[in-house]
Specification:
By secondary structure, this protein is an alpha/beta fold. Helices cover 31% and strands 22% of the residues. The chain binds S-adenosylmethionine (SAM). One of its GO terms (cellular component) is nucleus.
């Protein structure tokens, strides 16, 4: 059980405490950079050259898809900020129906092409438009009838802040996109969220994001935070990216993960997700649990 705020000796009483579990997943090696991105069909897919760094590599996309199919009930998944379809195609190949949204028409055209070459175009419902406008439209129709996605996957643009020491989740993309606002908009439409993020996100911000979703959905008290799961993808000694699982998908997946023997106290540290993973790997551990302190998002 996370401690009550007033129990945290030496920390600001306005801070909340939360636990987070971190797992490190090694990516299988690919023969070429193109196969790393798209697997065997790399010659048939289309994407603009500037999207190359944004595409979710195939093995990571497939690992996330496996978690969604195993732990998130329902066969319809929203892929918000879907880019050229790295995740959408993986989800559709696994048999899920995918609602996808991207603001860029060329990316939308490429996603539809990429779904076609994978033989899964009939499972993709693709729209071009601004995320907030599209989600508001969907929410107006779905909330009154209680309809929800089995899971929502969010891969926002990372932008220049990626070069900062600690990545700011409230200033993503061109600096005006906040992960907190993005998940807040979509919170009523699912109970399972999968949020892709850079390796230099502070581990406490992963918990803060989970707490924010929880409080928007009405489940948060000021004293407890449902534990998120952070999966860190590494390739050799390189940390590629991370994924924060929030809500039911995190709770269900955590039931299948053997808890580590001790909880590492990070309440006084500003460790990034990558620092957590490196520390774990240096001790030969692939699963870790940490206690963090964070200020709730206002
Ligand atoms: C990191 S990329 C997603 C990559 C994707 N997962 C893939 O594998 O292809 C982020 C995407 O967000 C889109 N985007 C940026 N702002 C948006 C907005 N306001 N609404 C919808 N899409 C947006 C960009 O066009 C870009 O394609």
């Amino acid at each position: 059980m996370p401690a009550m705020p007033e129990e945290i000796f030496g920390l600001d009483a306005a801070l909340l405490m939360g636990l987070v579990t971190i797992i490190v997943t090694e990516c299988p090696r690919a023969a070429t950079a193109s196969q790393w991105l798209w697997g065997g069909l790399w010659k048939s897919v289309k994407y603009a050259a500037h999207m190359r760094k944004s595409i979710t590599p195939r093995s990571i996309a497939d690992t996330i898809t496996a978690a969604i199919t195993m732990y998130a009930a329902g066969s319809i998944v929203l892929d918000a900020f879907s880019g050229v379809g790295g995740q959408s195609v993986s989800l559709a190949v696994a048999g899920l129906t995918v609602f996808a949204c991207d603001i860029n028409q060329t990316n939308v055209d490429h996603t539809m092409h990429n779904a076609r070459v994978h033989g899964v175009a009939e499972r993709l419902r693709m729209v071009c438009g601004d995320y907030f406008a599209r989600i508001a439209g969907l929410a107006a129709k779905w909330i009154p009838i209680g309809r929800k996605f089995g899971a929502i996957h969010v891969d926002m643009p990372w932008g220049k802040a990626y070069e900062e020491e600690i990545y700011p989740l409230h200033r993503m993309g061109d600096g005006t996109l906040s992960a907190y606002d993005v998940l807040e908009a979509v919170a009523p439409l699912s109970d399972s969220f999968v949020f892709k993020c850079p390796r230099n996100v502070a581990i406490r911000d992963a918990v803060k994001l989970a707490y924010h979703v929880q409080s928007i959905k009405g489940g948060a008290s000021t004293h407890t935070v449902a534990m998120p799961l952070v999966e860190v993808f590494v390739s050799g000694d390189k940390t590629v990216m991370a994924v924060i699982y929030i809500g039911d998908i995190a709770a269900k997946r955590l039931e299948d993960i053997a808890p580590p023997a001790r909880v590492v106290d990070l309440t006084h540290k500003r460790w990034t997700i990558e620092q957590c993973a490196k520390s774990m790997l240096s001790r030969g551990k692939r699963v870790g649990c940490a206690n963090v302190a964070f200020a709730p998002f206002a």
